[in-house]
Cyclic nucleotide-binding domain-containing protein (Pseudoduganella aquatica), 231 residues
Amino acid sequence: MTNKPPTLKEALRSAIWAQALTPEQMARVEADTYETFVPKGGFVCRKGEVVDNWVGIIAGMVKMNNFSPSGKSVTFTGVPPGGWFGEGSLLKNEPRKYDAMALRDSRIARMPADTFNWLLETSLPFTRFLLMQLNERLGQFIGMVENDRLLDIDTRVARCLAGLFNSLLYPGIEKLVQISQEEIGLLSGASRQRANQALQVLEKQGLLRLDYGGIRILDLEGLRRFEAPEA
């Protein structure tokens, strides 16, 4: 049996940043935050638009990416259920610097900018959470640049999967990751076929198992340390 997807209220109350809010603060968050549905391939948000809400994933998966004028795509990261993003653009009050697209049908929570800024002014724990999240995101992107420039595809796929297990950024992720080989390819910059080959290599190493409906992680630390042997 699969777990029943959370309601918007349940998703908000289970968020790490919500744990230290006062009843008054939580009541305003629940009253102001709303849910939207984005189908697979649809835009959760677009580059260049005015940023007027903080975005959380209730169900589904979203990738943050950009396109060059020639149409070439670069993917920054994938955001699974429980993850929130967009705080940087809100804090800087600038247009969004990237697109966010649904890798599958997704339920999206949107906290209005006024509510986000009110929490920033009234909740020290919320402000501390944002500092930690921004620091984690910076480390993630530094690692992504290193992976993209220095690592082979097998190792990139391993690090891509391991990167989904960040207790601060993505607290809702489970050991059975409901992600397709196509989605892994999009997140790691590989074709579906090449991503499939990499997953088979990692499965033979005992690091994961390809299950129906997803990928079961057997050795998370092994994925983080994995390096393909040099040819």
Observations:
- The mean pLDDT is 85.
